[in-house]
Amino acid sequence: MTLNRTLSSTETMRSRAVLTFPLFAHFGVPLWVPEIGGPIDPDSEAHNLIMSMYAGISKAERRRIQVRVRAAMTAQTEFEGRFLGGRPPYGYRLADAGPHPNPHQAAAGARLHRLALDPPAAAVVKRIFMLRLDGLGAGRIAATLNAEGVPCPSAHDRARNPHRSGEMWTDGTVLSILRNPRYTGYQCGTSNARPRC
Hints:
The protein is mainly α. The chain contains seven helices and five strands; from the N terminus they run E-H-E-E-H-E-H-E-H-H-H-H. The chain starts with a strand and ends in an 18-residue tail after the last helix.
């Protein structure tokens, strides 16, 4: 069995290549790389050097792609006000922002979206921040909202949250609102744990 592989911009760092070579050798699978004109010899210093060089080039290309994608997403959110996907945060709803700028997407009926306030839920979010400024912790804020009968986010919009119980506010729910950068005026490009705003 022979494995043909073209090095691409998604190739990982040297450490993965170093770990992979012995595995291929153990199972007798030659790794052919067109750039070196044949199979890789895991015991060859020259081949290890070449693979390290390609891994470094690939890592640099991966970083350039990340920078370009993040810059494009930032521009779309900051300058165009576009919402790039996912569930809108509690207190917001999706509003139509016109046809998609890509003609093929627009022809297929794709629309752009932006965030718009959901007035009843936005008032609750504002109240949560005011209670926090008054010195209440997340647990006490949740208890206050539950005592007042304020519907929690999953109860507020059952159609979007059928998988949640919608029973009550929890300190985790309050903390997620308090920690969300969108509530402090940042439009983020993704919903990763590390906000890219």
